[in-house]
Fold this protein.
Amino acid sequence: MAEEPSTISEKLQKLIGVRSEPVIFKVEEGAIQRYAEAIGDRNPLYNDIDYAKKSKFGRLMCPPGFTGWPVKHRRITEGPVELLVKAGAPARLLDGGVEFEFFEPIGAGEILVASTTITNITEKQTRLGRTLFTTIEIDYVNQNGSLALKAKQTFIMF
Amino acid sequence: MAKQLYYEDVEVGMEITPLAKVATTRMLVQWAGASGDFNPLHYDEEFAKNIGVGAPIVHGALKRAWLGQLMIDWIGEEGVLKRLSCQYRAMDYPRKMKTMTEPQPGETWWCKGKVVKKYEENGEFLVECQIWVENGKGEITTPGSALVSLPSKHASKS
């Protein structure tokens, strides 16, 4: 296997621990319904407002991992990716995987603050050529100040 | 909704009720809109060829969302999903559309899982699962894991 990790540049090294500007957004009912429909998930907690209001949650709920309308949401990951590319990371990107930790339920009407930190960068030679495995951690804090969701996202940059 | 699953119903080695999914080009477009992921990798033939994956591929995050549905459907409304992770190890290619509503014949993806551990911790009844998405050939393209907390029949009686 020619996949020995090599050392990453000083410029990239400096990005580890860097926290992006927080993004604030509201979780909208319509966004949840569209997302559930796109998965083909008919769970009434995501689709049926009346049902969800009568449930113990009292509001339309997000499917796991969904946090609301994406227009601003995209900036959450695009910010760190831009930083990485500017520091010399290869620009071609594949999603490598994700790990979610759920702490509080997330539902319609909530205001979330998302902040992103680049936590790890590893460089390897793979069949794609020079490849960077980068981990970014996204913390979603709700309006009560509680951490609702933590996402650890791996990007493969080559 | 399916009937509620209890901690006592679960045994190590037990299978999670599988969930079938058919990824179509239509579904990928819908997912792009609902998730905000407009990477041309998922709808532009030329772009997908240039990046080296051959043809547009199924979004990793869509497969992750399927796995979320697999778990939530299984644990019911009283169950709590605490952790979910997966890695996108292999490409999946969507079925094209034959008519407006009908996909071309081809593979069906299966979301599956099994219980690997059950234990009590800090008053919670926890179940650890190995989960994955299988393509039409039965190959695992997206392995993952999940941790859930289930209600206990004994705890609910007290």
